[in-house]
Amino acid sequence: MFVLSDELKNNECKFGVLPIGPIKSSLLYKVKSIHGMHFIDNLCDAKIADYGLMFIIAELMSDKERNEIKSAIRVNYDKGIPVFLICISKNKVKFDRACLLINPSDYNSIDEMEDKVTSSIKTFCDILSYPGMVNLEPADVKDIFSEKGFLKYSSKEAVGEYALQDAMKKCLDMINKKLSNVSYIIVNVTGSEDWLSFADIHCSLEMLYNKLENKSCTILWGVNTNEEFYDKIQVYMLARGEELKM
């Protein structure tokens, strides 16, 4: 089904970041540079209730980190704060909430892996922070994180008359290669107003739905405008699936 959120943002969204495990200082520095990002040291701090979304970045080395993750997830959800969990691990790990698993072995360097983590956070923050034609808010996106499973994201660009369909198809192809039984998808489209129409967006979402194996999958979507894009369209897609395809 299609879910529409059209409330304009009246207040700037605040994002919290909780590092767990031996996270490299270079990664923390990159994440800290993202607009609106606040690092959390103490989950008992009453101020965390002000955050619209909490990012947990964890490097799994032992059961100690796993237990810390479980505790942090529980505390945040008890306070009504959705959690975007990002785990850096060479092993496939699963929690009782959705997880974006980053395997260092998939990257040519530590710097490349850190850029991937930073990009996944920054893009999601930008989507929730900037007003657009159709806005996504933390309250809208919390359901994708609330159940077991694995997260994968893809961001693609295309130009020309069929740019929106092309970019969306490229994103979905990447997601389908990585995840099985996709049950939830967040799609955000960015482009200039002259090159975006709700008719084209609707057709592209219909194409997306028709290509999904799981017809009960929820599709949540938003649209941001950037007049500098001209005829370029960018599609961001975050999906939750039951299992990773190895």
Key structural traits:
2 domains, 246 residues, Rossmann fold, 60s Ribosomal Protein L30, Chain: A, alpha/beta
Descriptive overview:
With 246 residues, the protein is an alpha/beta fold. It folds into two domains: 10-129, Glycerate kinase, domain 1 (Rossmann fold, 3-Layer(aba) Sandwich), CATH 3.40.50.10350; 149-244, 60s Ribosomal Protein L30, Chain: A. It is 33% helix and 30% strand. The longest helix is centred in the middle third of the chain and has 20 residues, at 110-129. The protein is globular and about 50 Å long.
How helical, in percent, are the residues? 25-40%
Number of strands: 10
Number of domains: 2
List the strand order in the largest sheet. Answer: 1-9-8-10-7-6-5-4-2-3
Any idea of the CATH class of the largest domain?
Answer: Alpha Beta
Enter the CATH topology name of the largest domain. Answer: Rossmann fold
Task: Work out the helix count.
Answer: 6
The whole-number mean of residue pLDDT values reads 86
CATH homologous group name of the largest domain: Glycerate kinase, domain 1
> Main β-sheet: number of strands, strand sense, barrel status?
10 strands, mixed
CATH architecture title of the largest domain? 3-Layer(aba) Sandwich
Rg result: 18 Å
Q: What percentage of the residues does DSSP assign to strands (E)?
A: 25-35%
Q: Which word captures the global form?
A: globular
Q: Spans of 5+ residues with little confidence (pLDDT < 50)?
A: 1-11
Order of helices and strands: EEHEEHEEHHEHEHEE
